[in-house]
UniProtKB/TrEMBL annotation:
Annotated source species: Candidatus Trichorickettsia mobilis
Protein known as: Protein-export protein SecB
Gene name for this UniProt entry: secB
Entry keyword annotation includes Cytoplasm: yes
Compartments where located: Cytoplasm
Quaternary structure, from the entry: Homotetramer, a dimer of dimers. One homotetramer interacts with 1 SecA dimer.
């Protein structure tokens, strides 16, 4: 085995929108009086699937954002964005961390742009989701499962 064959390698073979939904339930009335700072409820989830091909995994980010003001819903956006990753020469001990930290961090900027674009195309200010520390989320989830 040569030195290059043992090098860890992560490649994105594809990235894609699996599902995208945008609801603007109170339009056009909500667009006439959009508040400057609506309340935003944001949730993020991560799904990892081992694919039948050796060393291939699908990493899916699920992002749901709901903007509301008092008792009125302004918009709801629901995005499932995924990537197919080819992961080579990563130990089993490190694989879960790579899949839960590095892979979502690689595709998150694209999902973030889609959310910003669709909210802007829906007539609102673009929703710019703050960067996410997937490492902190992974370690928090690990500590919760250990307790």
């Amino acid at each position: 085995m040569t030195e290059n064959q043992a090098m860890p390698h992560i490649a994105i073979n594809a990235q894609y929108i699996k599902d995208l939904s945008f609801e603007n339930p109170a339009a056009p009335g909500s667009l006439a009086r959009v508040p400057r700072n609506p309340n935003i409820d944001l949730s993020l989830d991560l799904h990892i699937t081992r694919l039948p091909e050796d060393n291939f995994f699908e990493v899916e980010l699920s992002i749901e954002a709901k903007a509301h003001n008092d008792d009125h819903t302004l918009f709801i956006v629901d995005l499932k964005y995924a990537g197919v990753f080819n992961i080579i020469n990563i130990s089993d001990e490190q694989l879960q961390a790579v899949l839960a930290i590095h892979c979502p961090a690689m595709i998150f900027p694209f999902a973030r742009k889609i959310v910003a674009d669709v909210t802007q195309d829906g007539g609102f200010q673009p929703l710019m989701i703050d960067p996410i520390d997937f490492g902190a989320l992974y370690h928090k989830k690990l500590s919760e499962t250990e307790n």
